[in-house]
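During the no-cost extension, the postdoctoral fellow (Dr. R.K.) reprocessed legacy sequence entries with the updated structure-token encoder. One reprocessed record is reproduced below for audit purposes.
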Amino acid sequence: MQETKKKRPFAVDKEKRKARRLALRRVERTSVRVDEETGDEARLTKTVEQCPERAESLGIVQEMTRAYIASIDYYKSDYGGSSPHDEAVKKHLSMNEWRRDYVKDLQPEKVEWSHLAAIAEADVTDSIKLWERLRDAADNDLESGKRASEIVGSRVEPYALAQFFAIRNSFADQWQPNGGIESAMLDMMTIAFSLQMYWSQVAHRRSVEVHNSQERELGRIGTKGWKSPYQHEAGAIDQAYKLADGYNRQFLRVLRQLRDLRRYAPVIIQNNGGQVNIGEQQVNLKQ
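Re-encoded structure tokens follow.
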């Protein structure tokens, strides 16, 4: 019996994505030209085949072109030395040689459009490979949870990051997200729950600090009772509690949306008998 490989939570189906990105679609484009003297219109309709992969590549080329123009304009400006156009181009080309060496071991999140443009200037294939490396790194950050963890804090301590991943994995173990929407909703729940716990801790700490400070003040003057906190102290405590409550509301709202997403999912009709897996339940249908 052949065993099917279980899909990991948050995993990216790269084969399915590749097929979707390469799927062609036909778009009709009509251009109209009006003769100013006669007012006659001339229409030209052209059918163009397009796919998401090619559309994305065109967008990348546009951004690299903007970076190329911006670099030359900089050297022609007062900040860049007010160089003539020819000299500005020479400075730009010289800087691109440095960029090509600099970007080799650069972390993906630090790559700029000027780096891609510099590599494309020497070899377009290498610039495409660099862009694919950036996309793979982005997929890995999304699948591993690193992207979501940066919302809570991009420079958190190792144990705090491990705590974030523990929450995310516990939610994924229970819900087993299917596809990008459910994965994104679990990330939203993880972020909201993490921030709820953080601000609950801050609110509690501020309350305790104010309480202990009041006790020390009353002990110093030799009296008993209760001393109301200063307005800025009460405001700081109230702010923390409101933030904790707000993140709790976000968590519950996304949880209800995830529940409703699965509740109102389309009905699956099995015409042929066999085993149908529904969530954690296995149902055998009669032939």
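Residues 29 and 46 are 5 Å apart (CA to CA). The first helix runs from residue 14 to 22. The remaining legacy entries will be reprocessed before the final report is submitted.
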